Amino acid sequence: MTALAGERSGALWIGTNAGGLTRLERTLTQPGGSYSPLRADPTQPGSLASNIVSVLLVDSRGALWVGSSGGLDRRAVAGGPFTNFQHDPADPTSLSDNSVYTLLEDKDGTLWVGAYAGLNHFDPATRRFTHYAVGNEKAADRSANIVRVLLLDRTGNLWIGMQNGGLSRLARPSGEITHYGSDPANLRSLSVDGVTGLAQDAQGYIWVSTDTGGLNRLDPQTGEFSRFGAAEGLADNRILALAHTPAADVMGDSGAGADGTEEEGPGLDGTGALWMSTGRGLARFDLQTQRFRSFDTRDGLPAGGFVPYAVYQSPQGELFFGSTDSVVAFDPAAIQESSSIPDAQFAEFYVDNKPMPIGDDTGLATAIFAAESISLPPDSHSFALTFAAPG
After folding, report:
1. Which of 246, 291, 312, 383 is most buried, by CB atoms within 10 Å?
2. 351 contacts 327 by C-beta, under 8 angstroms
3. What are phi and psi of 233, to 5 degrees?
4. Is residue 261 over pLDDT 70?
């Protein structure tokens, strides 16, 4: 699961490394969801350009954008054709490269596109791309400056994280570019040059997750970094994806007011938290205590591990992280700390998105929590389980 994006309806788009797209329609009556696959077909005009998907975006108009090994695709309406944008060596206003890795919609509806060959600014009205050289000009390896993550801060500046080329800031409206890289002789520099995530907190600090150097905090006023890792409780310095949750994200308290504003409540730190996938599960970083709390298979996470850059945060605050074989979804505000281990049990069993009836001839002889075995119908395609724990 390499890319995630959500629609206003709550449906989730899932991109894969070789299987194209899947649309997951989630409902209360179908907790397993209904899946609609979408694959590239070179014989069909308006098809998805490639099944190797790196990034997804649903813009403010509801259009679906797909970045892949086949360039940039846009589908304006559900069920409609895709419009594909690719690099044209004869056209300097075309996409800089056909390998697209990250997308960000600006406030004016234009699009920032991170690619193998750097940063692009795309105007959908003119269909023209403007190219920016944002990486480390001294890098010997051209792939070091692959743009992987983008962040638009509250002042309108654009932050660009690169695969092995460090961090850059594109100041606006001046267009001035400032580069930040790792310097082994300077402990106030970026820890390593592989950037995997970007976030801005309420105080204006820029948080930078890295592929092997843990978590960094940049003070934009001084240009100095602070580093956070094992000493603060991080189980693995390989951070794969990063998300910032607002102050309402507090263990055991949603902190949300009736009008959607944040309220102070018991345990509410007022600063929010950072959530990240790592090489050893998930981690939550408390911005006030500056300590990590780790979650792994003992907390119900999949054993297969997570995928770099695969994260999505819904408007309601729900977080989605892509793993090698599934999507992990949860509401950060609903997670509570507990010193006891609950006695979890299966609650419901679904086959092909329908509750499996109980009976001697159905394959489920008794309630799922008491069943010793289950026999699936030979023509079934999928199954889903729900579980519950007292308290």
Report:
1. 312
2. no
3. 105, 10
4. no
Query: Once rounded to an integer, what is the mean pLDDT over residues 137-160?
Result: 86
User: What is the pLDDT at residue 361?
Assistant: 75
Gap between the Cα atoms of 353 and 25, Å rounded? 11
Lookup: tokens for 258: 């009736």
| pLDDT given for residue 138 in this prediction | 66
Residue type, position 312, single letter: Y
Length of the chain, in residues: 391
Which residue type is seen at 329?
Answer: A
Amino acid identity at 130: T
Question: How many Å apart are CA 12 and CA 365, to the nearest integer?
Answer: 34
Residue type, 80: G
Three-state SS at 293: strand
DSSP letter assigned to residue 180: E
Q: Tell me the CA end-to-end span of the chain in Å, nearest whole number.
A: 32
Three-state DSSP at 270 gives coil
Q: What does DSSP assign to residue 81?
A: P
- Model confidence at 363, pLDDT cuts 50, 70, 90, reads confident
Residue 104 has pLDDT above 90, yes or no: yes
Coil, strand or helix at 235: coil
DSSP state of 210: E
Instruction: Give residue-wise pLDDT tens across range 169-212.
Output: 999 999 999 999 999 999 999 999 999 999 999 999 999 999 99
Q: Is 135 in contact with 165 (CB distance < 8 Å)?
A: yes
Can you give the pTM of this predicted structure?
Answer: 0.81
Q: Is the pLDDT of residue 268 over 60?
A: no
Question: Side chain identity at 234, as an amino acid letter?
Answer: L
| Cβ neighbours for 56, distance < 8 A, ≥ 6 positions apart | 3, 4, 5, 13, 15, 21, 64, 65, 66, 67, 103
By three-state DSSP, how is residue 290 classified? coil
Rounded to the nearest 5 degrees, what angle is found at the Cα of 365, between the Cα atoms of 363 and 367? Answer: 115
Q: Per the structure block, which two tokens stand in for 110?
A: 């234009």
Placement of tokens 């899946």 in the chain: 35
What single letter denotes the amino acid at residue 126?
A: T
Question: Which CA distances in Å does 134 have to 114, 144, 288?
Answer: 10, 11, 32
- Give CA–CA dist 265/267, Å, rounded: 6
